[in-house]
Amino acid sequence: MTEGDSKKPAKPGKYKIIPIVRHVAEISQERDRKYAYEYITGNGMTRREEGYLRDPDGEAPVQVQKGSYSYTDTDGQASPTYRNCP
Predict the structure, then answer these.
(1) Tell me, what's the pLDDT at 1?
(2) Which residues lie across from 73 on neighbouring strands?
(3) Domain annotation covers residue 36
(4) Measured between alpha carbons, how far is 22 from 46 in angstroms, rounded to an integer?
């Protein structure tokens, strides 16, 4: 790295450790491998996701998932959602 490079390694102690205050995970042992998980951090960030394997016995099984997450950025609260369902 050159002097003034913005990709310098972080100095020890620069970042605050944020605890995970809640974590739940469920995974099915059935053929569809249905799952769900959620976590919440000490600073209010959240993430939730669930999914399953569609057509697990077919020639081309597909992982289906959907979820959301939220955090507070410099402009305020953000809560994107996503879905993968081909």
Answers:
(1) 43
(2) 76
(3) yes
(4) 9
Residue 10 belongs to some domain of the structure:
no
Instruction: Please list the ranges in the chain whose pLDDT falls under 70.
Output: 1-12, 85-86
Task: Classify residue 37: in a domain, yes or no.
Answer: yes
pLDDT for position 26:
96
- Give domain status of residue 24, yes or no: yes
In the chain, how many domains are there?
Answer: 1
Using CA atoms, how far residue 7 sits from 1, 3, 10, 16, 70, in Å, is: 8, 10, 9, 19, 27
> Which tokens sit at 63?
């992982």
pLDDT at 40: 95
Its domain, for residue 35, covers 20-68
- pLDDT tens for residues 33-44? 999 999 999 988
